[in-house]
Design goal:
By secondary structure, the chain is α+β, with helices and mostly antiparallel strands. The protein is about 35% helix and about 25% strand. The chain folds into 2 domains: about 25-230 and about 385-475, 3-Layer(aba) Sandwich (Aminopeptidase), CATH 3.40.630.10; about 235-385, Alpha-Beta Plaits. A hairpin with a 7-residue loop joins β7 and β8. Bound molecules: zinc ion.
Amino acid sequence: MTCSLFLLLAALPGAQGSAPATRALPTDLSTQPVATDRVLDTVDWPAATAELTTRLGELLRIPSVNPPGDEALVVAWLDEWLRSEGIATEVIPLSAGRSSLVARLPGSGAEKPLCLMSHVDVVPAEAERWTVPPFSGELKDGFLWGRGALDMKGMTALEAMTMVQLKRLGVPLRREVVLLAVADEEVDSRGMDSIVRVWERVGCSHLVNEGGYGLDGMFFEGQTFHAISVAEKGAVWIRMIASGEPGHGSTPVAGRAPEHLSRALAKLATRKDVVHWSDAILESFRRVGTEHGGVSGAILGSPFLVKLLVRGRLMANPVMHAALTNTVNVTGFFGGQAPNVVPSEVGAVLDCRILPGATVEGLLAELTALVDDPNIRFEVTSQTNANGSPWDDPFFQALAARAVEGQEHAVAGPVVSVGYTDSQALRPLGVHAYGYVPFVIDPKLLGTTHGDDERVPVSELAPGLRRLMGAVLDVSLAEGGGRPGPREPGVR
Ligand SMILES: [Zn+2]
């Protein structure tokens, strides 16, 4: 499966080139903890950046392609690095050549642990279509190239480097900080299943994982929107099966299975979209519109005007459409062995994605009523439930504040991811899970995830590390923990 979020919108009214009226600082910045800044300023940023660049290059050269996975290679690499820094690790075996890693920095226990989570498998790459070999980890034209650079070994490297820096600086923590490097997200999530089985030994109250990025020009030219995923849609995979009397292909008879199937598919194609305006999306529109200002900002900032004036444009964008509706997508067919045999059963595969609040039962009832044919039945072959976390939360606020820090035209807000992530498995255990890879990229670069020439700008490594470390420290630093240490110029 894959991580994803909604993409660039079609231009909003007056979006191109319109000058912003006012630029209020994001309110979250006003509560930015000074103690965290003191710790961040003790980091040797040029050295940390060089080390991070080298480490990520090494990581990208480990081909943990799933299938088969081979995540044990990444786990061994991480294990050696973190243990060489004196960080305690635990390997969670999955199967031959496959495992996940848990690493821990101790805290006082005043608060429950914070998890820095990533998956360490990657999807395959068509090497002949790439500019550089996909597992070269090459540094070229200001980018580190390689499958997983964005999805999501870049984040794994940021998280591991955060652990290493916190350990080296020896800052006192009020909670454990736990690295979770997880196998098998891209196929079956069995790595996550194995983590869930030992969850009593992890027990985080909060985590950061994949989901959103900082996206240049997502809503307005010149503005960066840091999308922090607070929820994922549920995936419901269904076999829609038509049945009827079998027979000879030479003699058409009405009412056979293929005819029922084709009628059902025609009815599915008439399915009407019902827009569900999530509070998360309206909140992000409000933040984006307020930051941008002007007429188009005012429109986006008003739920009433969004519904009245922008609905059509939003629904014309496939990813935004998916973020606002429960979707039913025909992705395959089955049945029929020979051209001259009318089979007793044929069917279609449906990939359905439901929003938080929707149920599988509700979806099946809707499809059954729409198709309205006793010769059609629906079988659910797999399902994950949609779930979400609140954005009125200290860790979300820290991620949002650190995301926009030092940037003039940036705003952070909550989004609903249209794809699956491993966060979904942990929210039912009480975890507040947020999806945010803290690199600022443009939509074109985002399109390289699962595609050709996946790469991350080297210029984003230091800011990404600072955003992540800052947010982690904001919610983990023990009282007084930021005071010691010399103050040196930091990299912003
Ligand atoms: Zn991913």
